[in-house]
Amino acid sequence: MGDMSAQSFNRPGAVDLSDLAARAQSSSAPASASAGSPGPTGASWIALVDDEQGFNDYVQKSLQHPVLIEFTSAQAHSETMDADLDQITNEAAGRWILVRVDADKAPQLAQALQIQALPTLLPIVGGQPVSQPIQGTLSADQIRQLTDQVSQLAVANGIAGNAAPVSQAAVADTGQDAGPDPRTTAVEALMDQGRYDEAVAGYDELLAKNPADPVLTAGRARAALLSRLAGRNQEAVLAAADEAGSDVDAQLAAADVELIGGDPGTAFRRILAVIRTSRDEDREKARLRLLELFEMVGDDPTVASARRALAAALF
């Protein structure tokens, strides 16, 4: 795995999470918890690891997408935080993987990473930690703040993959693993490897047999977006949109960045502005892109609002 000591946490470009960490350390531990919810398809992006090999495997996956490590134990009394982590992770449906390590079962890992308190979160992008360990319990809002920052940093560094579900499903009421959709296993493997153009072609083949399938349509839209963003710097894309003004391609690229960074409302408003101020082919291109992003986001209040705004802009 390489040197994972505390010194590597301060590398250039690391997310500044010091305020979040300070608030977490000063908060009190919750008294009780409920089980986290599975993702929208019933799958889970939560892995349970208790050995170095499994840990290293997930660190390697951070070359394609963020990995959030949680060190905890039964004595940490972090049940509410764990439930929030589970729910937020599965709702994100692959923007990152949560790896939960029981420090009592893997003391060598905790010692190697100099974990001094439980629970502790450690975000990893590109094979390296991107902040100091965040010790103490976090609220749901703090978890969302953390994961949004980590996702944005990953995209800024050209790491824009979506994780396939892991085998350890967090479905407490059934006790059964919820694996990936069998139709898309091969395509999701391409996504996990960062082979987004091939994944788009794979989804196109599946859609030819199952036109308008919502799962396949959303997957195809996600693969296409990641293909467009692959290797591009997030900040540079947004800066180019500011400089380009009415350039349609620049505005659509910026909307991609905003969507994958966790801000679909801003992405939708940007494209709606293009639709209102452009004509003919440019307008139609923006309309089709907006509909594609709607498929990715799915059942969300921002989509309903943007659909109404689109209808007003067109008619």
The chain-level mean pLDDT equals: 79
Inertia-based shape? elongated
User: What is the oligomer described by this structure?
Assistant: single chain
Q: Quickly give the structural class.
A: alpha/beta
**Ends: how far apart?**
57 Å
Spell out the helices and strands N to C: HEHEHEHEEEHHHHHHHHH
Annotated CATH homologous superfamily of the largest domain: Glutaredoxin
Uncertain segments are: 1-37, 167-179
Total number of domains: 2
General description of the model:
By secondary structure, this protein is an alpha/beta fold. The chain has two domains: 6-156, Glutaredoxin, CATH 3.40.30; 183-314, no CATH class. The protein is 52% helix and 8% strand. It is built from 13 helices and six strands. It has helices at 18-26, 52-61, 79-92, 107-112, 140-156, 185-192, 196-209, 214-229, 234-244, 248-260, 264-277, 280-297, 301-314; strands at 46-49, 67-72, 97-102, 120-125, 128-129, 134-135. The chain is elongated. The protein starts with 17 loop residues before the first helix and ends with a helix.
